[in-house]
Write a structure and sequence with these properties.
The chain is 40% helix and 17% strand. The chain is α/β, with parallel strands linked by helices and 400 residues long. It has 3 domains: 228 residues, Rossmann fold; 61 residues, no CATH class; 84 residues, no CATH class. The chain has a 7-stranded mixed beta sheet, with helices on both faces. It has a two-stranded antiparallel sheet with strand order 8-11. Strands 9-10 form a two-stranded antiparallel sheet. The longest helix has 15 residues. Bound molecules: S-adenosylmethionine. The site of S-adenosylmethionine has 23 residues, from helix 1, helix 3 and strand 2. This is Methyltransferase domain-containing protein. One of its GO terms (biological process) is methylation.
């Protein structure tokens, strides 16, 4: 058995207990359905017509459970195909789906390299997998070959700078523990790690904590058998190499270097150079999340808030609560990738935020507040720039 396959057979990752499904739903990017709609289907996907989904390298089931539960809640029919090489991970994913009483998932133990054998899919999730393949580009290509003509995909791969210190340690630990059983290798590597100097880049990297949580986390982060990070440029080249276009990096505002640059320099950068500059200057990005589709759909993929029939949804915060914070301070705080962010919004936008309930369209919110479309459009554009930019606002026809 291949080394990486063995690793996930012995140590499914991330570690999940199906009993926890009773108390929480793990949500995140990619594959939060409102985010999928926003970035791939113009915010107006016809979810009632049904959605065929491939979860490629589904592991212990986070992306799978998130999509199945949210689509079920919304009454949106779906068929999900789960593929993973690890039997043990599949059993955990199956138990999580069963614990929630969810239907419509077919489980297969197979490689995503065979994705096309399972059909063509409207949406493909591949989170944290491609960077572990012996030939990652073959994985990008295999996913493209299973994508329907009007479909899109959400990907996550590791990024180098936010994982500073990881790769020299993987090299060292793998060499020094060669031939040992995983438990012994973990024990030896933990002892070595404890003796490394405080100034070691890994010890200075506050963002990396998985190795503290569990043996599976330690193995995945510091003793991985095959793990290559991608810069944002390399990721986009890999997507394009598969014949697709990258339509969004998540959250989009994280890839804007303008806050760090003199205006004249910022304005001269092309889109890709700008994103790469943002990654290099931030230094904190540890994963890249991208949405991709066929080039002929790229222009139509992203929701445009000038279309007042769109329905806005907030992520992780309720409209009235956000409205209260903005009315009081004109700011909200969030942390992302080790950065503390203060997002400023005009106080007069608070009543619009209070109107977001996952059902009201932009025109209904404008009408409710008695605003003419012109004044509304200008104020909403500012809300959209900040909140959609940082992944807190999506447009979707899904009803929560
Ligand atoms: C880090 S886990 C990520 C799991 C899941 N996508 C998530 O985000 O929680 C990587 C998974 O990829 C699976 N994997 C690795 N190579 C694969 C391949 N060629 N085909 C399918 N699955 C693969 C592993 O078995 C493992 O479950």
């Amino acid at each position: 058995m291949d080394k990486v396959q063995r690793q996930y057979e012995d140590f499914p990752y991330p570690e999940r207990d199906p009993a926890d499904e009773k108390r929480r739903l793990v949500v995140g990017s990619p594959s939060y359905p409102f985010e999928i709609d926003h970035h791939l289907f113009g915010g107006k996907r016809d979810w009632k017509a049904g959605t065929s989904i491939l979860v490629a390298g589904g592991g212990t089931g986070d992306g799978l459970v998130q999509m199945a539960q949210i689509l079920t809640n919304a009454g949106a029919p779906y068929e999900i195909t789960y593929l993973d090489l690890s039997e043990k991970s599949r059993k955990i994913a199956e138990a999580r789906i069963a614990a929630r009483g969810l239907k419509g998932v077919r489980f297969h133990t197979d490689s995503l390299l065979n994705a096309a054998d399972y059909g063509k899919f409207d949406y493909i999730d591949c989170c944290g997998v491609l960077h572990h393949l012996p030939e990652p580009q073959a994985g990008f290509n295999a996913l493209a070959s299973a994508l329907a003509p009007k479909g899109g995909m959400g990907l996550m791969v590791y990024a180098p700078h936010g994982r500073s210190g990881v790769y020299p340690l993987q090299d060292a630990f793998n060499a020094l523990t060669d031939g040992m059983a995983p438990e012994e290798a973990i024990a030896v590597a933990r002892k070595i790690l404890a003796k490394l100097p405080e100034g070691h880049p890994f010890k200075c990297n506050q963002q990396l904590v998985d190795h503290e949580a569990s043996d599976a986390g330690f193995l995945d982060l510091l003793l991985h058998g095959r793990d290559r990070p991608y810069t944002v440029t390399q990721l986009q080249e890999a997507i394009e190499g598969a014949g697709l276009s990258c339509v969004a990096m998540i959250p989009p505002a994280q890839y804007d270097p303008a806050p760090f640059l003199p205006k004249d320099i910022a304005s001269e950068l092309g889109p890709r150079a700008a994103m790469q500059a943002a990654e290099n200057l931030r230094g904190t990005i540890k994963v890249h999340i991208a949405y991709a589709t066929w080039p002929d759909r790229a222009a139509a993929a992203l929701a445009r808030p000038k279309d007042l029939s769109l329905v806005p949804h907030l992520k992780g915060v309720a409209g009235p609560a956000l409205a209260k914070a903005i009315a009081a301070k004109g700011q909200v705080s969030m942390t992302l990738g080790g950065e503390s962010l203060r997002l400023s919004l005009p106080k007069k936008a608070a009543p619009l935020l209070a109107g977001i309930d996952g059902r009201a369209s932009l025109s209904a919110i404008a009408k409710l507040r008695g605003m003419d479309p012109f004044a509304f459009g200008a104020l909403w554009a500012e809300l959209d720039r900040v909140l959609a930019g940082w992944g807190l606002l999506h447009y979707s026809s899904l009803v929560p």
